[in-house]
Amino acid sequence: MTTLLDSLRQYTTVVADTGDFEAMKAFKPTDATTNPSLILNAVQQPAYQHLLVETIKQHPNANAAELNDALLVAFGKAILDIVPGRVSTEIDARLSFDTQASIERARYIIQQYEQAGIDRSRVLIKLASTWEGIQAAKQLQNEGIQCNLTLLFCLAQAIACAQAKVTLISPFVGRIYDWYKKQAGTSWDEAAHAGVNDPGVKSVRQIYDYFKAYDVKTEIMGASFRNTGQILALAGCDLLTISPGLLSELANTQGEVTKHLDATQSKHAAPEWQASNEIVFRTDLNADAMATEKLAEGIRFFIRDAIALDQLIAQTKARV
Description:
By secondary structure, this protein is an alpha/beta fold. The chain is built from 15 helices and eight strands.
């Protein structure tokens, strides 16, 4: 009997959503994703504090932003020694509404990777799926810099990303689930909203069906999972990025996974084609209370952790 994790790999590329190198070695994902929160958590662990100290010593004259990016690249380089594929490195969330600044930071990060001998084809620049972030990604893609658009909660965001021809999008599952569960309060029926009926799963499925029906090349990577049921309900998605805890649960459970997403089936029941421009994007996003609230909340939380990381770097620099 195979494990659920091995069975899942038949249909979907497994990605590790962590800054923990040991977890990557244990579960052997193809790619890895990071974000400010994950790096903040990792760098506070004794096993990874040397990376922070080494980064500060190697960049004695760097400002806060440069040190932050250098630390992200240091983690990214170490991750690429473990995984055979790509690593996603996130732009500072404080730039989520600044297209030009996001472009400049992305170019700087890619330059740091290339100076370290890492080809840009192994790096995905993560940006928030704001209109400004998507336009930054459009320009970066034209320059040969691959992008991963994160904090994505609705089809309007996904279609704008498709038109920008971004390499990959990360539609969130768990945070959508959280929103609907909170809205329902005591009337929430967990069993009725599990698996394929989970609101986050249904959102990713809608995006998947649209992209496959219209031959959109952008890869879809489901993200932000709360339980293995959400993961298994998206078997067949291009990629799924999974936390170490859920990877462990899948690896320690015997069973066969059923493929739920299939490009051929999506083409047979093609959803209606939708135009997209800035006005349509902002109007449709604004009309979706869940997506609007979760996007804003996600940016706030990433900014909070980016500030905390800045403070940790400054405190460590004062001691080095």
